[in-house]
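in:
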């Protein structure tokens, strides 16, 4: 992926303020964010569309972020997934990383933190 390429990023979070804030940050740094409000919608959207990355909330009603992450790995979707949590612990971070997350992001997050993560996603080799 070239350093100047704009990424299509899926944001999955049940809190509208988080979705809107993260989407605005992603758009502000030159990428495109598509937002859905729960894990089931995230699963359907990932199944039907191609994204360069996804930011997924860990705790959501219905299909939570960890199960969506595990599903995406079983389907071999290959996109970098950032798990987000406002209630993250070292154990939940470790579980996310062992399950194949690209990164674990603790809420609240900053524009600099989001930009840094997206720069790492762009610099990482494509999944095999």
């Amino acid at each position: 992926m070239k350093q100047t390429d704009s990424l299509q990023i899926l944001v999955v979070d049940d809190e509208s303020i988080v979705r809107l804030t993260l989407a605005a940050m992603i758009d502000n740094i030159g990428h495109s964010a598509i937002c859905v409000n729960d894990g089931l919608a995230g699963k359907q959207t990932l199944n039907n569309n191609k994204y360069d990355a996804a930011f997924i909330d860990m705790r959501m009603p219905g299909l939570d972020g960890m199960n969506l992450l595990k599903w995406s790995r079983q389907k071999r979707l290959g996109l970098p997934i950032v798990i987000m949590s406002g209630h993250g612990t070292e154990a939940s971070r470790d579980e996310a990383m062992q399950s194949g997350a690209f990164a674990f992001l603790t809420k609240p997050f900053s524009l600099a933190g989001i930009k840094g993560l997206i720069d790492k996603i762009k610099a990482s080799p494509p999944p095999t």
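note: Residues 16-28 form the longest helix (13 residues).
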